[in-house]
Amino acid sequence: MIVDLNELAGQFARALLTVDAVYHTIRHPNEPFYEHTGDRLTPKAGFLFAIRGHTTFAFNGTSYEMSPGTVVHGGKQMELRIAPSADEFEFFLIHYTPNYKQLAAEAELPTDYMQTHFALEPGEHPKLIERLRQLHQASRTPGNLAAIRTKELFHGILHELFAYSRNRLHSESGSSIEQAIAYIQDHFMEPLTVGEMAARYGMEAKPFAYLFTKFVGISPIDYLIHHRMKRAEELLTTSRCTIGEIAVSVGYGDAHYFSRLYKKHTGLSPTEFRSLTR
Q1: What is the secondary structure of 19-71 as a DSSP string?
Q2: Which CATH fold topology does 222-277 show?
Q3: For 5-168, which CATH superfamily applies?
C-alpha cells in the first residue's frame, strides 16, 4: 500500500501509546519462526526493524521482503507467516498498544495505520540502530524513570523512522518530480491530466500524485492550476488580451469557467483584478 507519511506521522503524534515490549532477536538459518495463524493471530500492533539478514514476512497474505534498512508494521489480530531464512536474521520488534477509544473517535481517518500493515524504507542508519538498542535496554529496566525513558526513545525512533523514510523517498523520486514540474511549466496551456503526466515517467496516476504531493506540498492538479493563475495574472497586467483570449492561452476553453476558477483562487474576478492594475 502507499503510505502517506505526513498522515502517518500525524496519527502517531496524536495517539496515546503504550510500549508493551521490545525484543531483540537473532534467528539462525532455517530456524522456524513462531507464526500467527488461525485463532493465534498477532496479539499486539508492532514495528519490526530488520538489522541483518533476509527473510519474508507476510501479513494477511501480503508479503514483505525484509532486509537491513526495511521496517514493516503490522496491526493487532493479523495473520503472520514468516519464510525460513537461509542466513541469520537479526531484528528488533516493538509491540505497542494505542488508545483504541481515541482511535474510535477518529473513525473518519482515510487509513488507520495502527490497525493495518505496511512497509517503510528508511535505509540503514547506525543512529537508529543505537536508539533501538537503548530502547530495548530501557524497556527491560524497572522503575518509573525507565518507563519515561522508554516512551521518549520510542517517539524518537518513530520520528527518525518517518524522517529517514521521507528523505529517502524524496531523493529517489526528486528527479522525476522536478522533471514533471518543468513539464507543467512548459505545457500548462495544454489539457494535462495526472494520468498523462504519470505515464511520462513510467508511473501509475495514484503513486505519481502521492510522490508529487509529498515533494511539492500540493497535488499535481493544484500545482497546474496555481501556475495557470500566475500566468493569467501576468497577462491581465501586461497585455490587452480579452478575458476569453487569456483563458484559452492558459488552458481553459470556457471563459466563464476560467473566471470562476480565478476568483476562487485569488478572491477577485479577472475583470476586477485588471481594473486594480490599470
Answers
A1: EEEEEEEEEPTTPPPPPB-TT---SSEEEEEEEES-EEEEETTEEEEE-TT-E
A2: Arc Repressor Mutant, subunit A (1.10.10)
A3: Regulatory protein AraC (2.60.120.280)
Are the beta carbons of 259 and 269 closer than 8 angstroms?
yes
Closest CA to 68 of 96, 42, 94, 88: 88
Tell the residue number behind the cell numbers 511520462, with chain if given.
200
At which residue does the C-alpha cell 505526513 appear? Answer: 6
Bridge partners for 22 per DSSP = 94
- Count CB-CB contacts under 10 A for residue 118: 18
- pLDDT tens digits for the chain (278 residues)? 678 888 899 899 988 899 999 999 999 888 877 789 988 999 999 999 999 999 999 999 999 999 999 999 999 999 999 988 888 999 999 999 998 666 556 556 667 899 999 999 999 999 999 999 999 999 999 999 999 999 999 999 999 999 888 877 766 666 788 889 999 999 999 999 999 999 988 888 988 898 888 778 789 999 999 999 999 999 999 999 999 999 999 999 999 999 999 999 999 999 999 998 77
Residue among 37, 25, 35 nearest 57 (CA): 35
Angle, helices 205-216 vs 220-238, to 10°: value is 60
Model confidence, pTM: 0.65
